[in-house]
Amino acid sequence: MIKERIEHLRALMAKNHMEAYIIPTADFHESEYVGNYFKTREFMSGFTGSAGTLVVTLTEAGLWTDGRYFIQAARQLADTGITLYKMGEEGVPSIEEFLSKKLHQDAVLGFDGRVVNAKFGLELKEKLEAQNITIRYDKDLVDSIWTDRPALPKEPAFLLDEKYAGRTTADKLQDIRKEMDKLGTFVHIITTLDDIAWLFNIRGNDIAYNPVVLSYAVITPDRAYIFLNQEKLSEDIKAKLAADKVELKDYQDIYTFVADLSPQTFVLLDSKKVNYAIYKNLNREITIIDAANPTVLFKAIKNPVEIENLRKAHIKDGIAFTKFMYWLKTQIGKTEITEISAGDYLEARRREQDGFIELSFDTICAYKANAAMMHYSASQGSNAVLKQEGLLLVDSGGQYYEGTTDITRTIVLGKISGELKMHFTAVLRSMLNLAGAKFLHGCIGMNLDILARGPIWDMNLDYKCGTGHGVGYLLNVHEAPNGFRWKKVPERNDGCVLEEGMVTTDEPGVYIEGSHGIRTENELVCHKGEKNEYGQFMYFEHITFAPIDLDAVDISYMSPVERRRLNDYHKQVYEKLSPYLTPDEKEWLKEYTRAV
Hints:
This protein is an alpha+beta fold. Helix 14 (304-331) crosses helix 15 and helix 16 (418-435) packs antiparallel against helix 17 (445-457).
């Protein structure tokens, strides 16, 4: 089926005189996760991961993805005729290098300019200029191949009350306009959905697990405009936006709107996020200030109301997860449990919590070797039956009115080897070491990542991903610009200074292909500590609370400080969660949070 689709695409390319065509994993807004309408790369390649770019020439096809998906992509691309290109690995060409080598002089490169960001489009143009390559960005060739393509979503939006958001839209717009003024700009174009949702205190259901609304926004000194399907808005939302001097326009009108901007104006936009078609529609005489949207940093620094709400959300989430872990530990071997049914049980416990809206991502419930794939998703074909042996990795989260959660625990289902205990304990030590960091303001995640990665590097192992990412507030579970990783990855905007109020995950792991995967993940809030002659010291607060499986811990590998950190954490887990549990669950939790 995939081979036939690729050949159909090549026929359309030949008809349009194109020698290559690019299909990224993107919507019109450069979202990390996309709605069903936009899953063209998945449709054309069969690869279901959240990140990857398919490039098809008249004779070859390749898919580029990152280390999270090497194992999964290799399996899903088998027998498709599509070559896997492992991004970041030695000797692997970039997409630009590949095209430069494969395209002939005066060739035509095609893509849908609405799903390719301006920065990448401009880099391609510059890289291929010497070969006089023409770029056609006005053709969505996949659309005529995908005959039963899903429609764009029409789900209703909702307002996020100030008791959850903490700040009004009017206040946020004022802050944005101050930043525009500092940069000398009169128009700000925003296309990223989470930024728009945060700015206007609206949420929706246009992307699974990401409560956003397909929309664009333009901010001027005295007006703001939102471009979206207006049928999604209730009269209350329309009235609230009108009161904030926000004008509504149709979703597709963004292209003519930006084309009509005065050539003398100064426009603020982020070329890594604004799509190529919008960028090319701007008058060439417009002065563009290419910089990150101010909303990115504002959104990442949670206000006191948001932080207090997040603490409440994580208690609810911890109750749900603890009930799940108790059930799993006490029922394994007594009744048939599969990866899918275990995930369903956990979701049901979350849905019992007040204020729960939906999951924050598709639950990863991975048994034994399946857990070696970092973003594994169980299907009917892979759905493993759990037995009284080995490890189960569960990475999950919820969207609550009080915020977004993301937690990973690896659970012992029966007898495990000494090697598994060593790996589990190393991951635990890594998580605790990073969470316990005290550091000076000005540090970025790269300065601290060694605290997590060190115990794993000591075993001559590593994990091919970052150690942690920012988390939105009732928004995307992956949020820029904060994160932890050991080296700079340009496409990952996660290298900012760690500020008070930022929420970042702490999730080191060990992944052994064909054997097992282990990850332990908590969310941390950054706070200011003591300020003295050396500067402003910072520290982290755990806001995730759920037991870490002591059945897999070998304390002989742990230092006294590490044991104290684990015991202090588990003491909090018991104190915060036990009041909400049944007597049996409470007694079980007491055992699983005992001091070691």
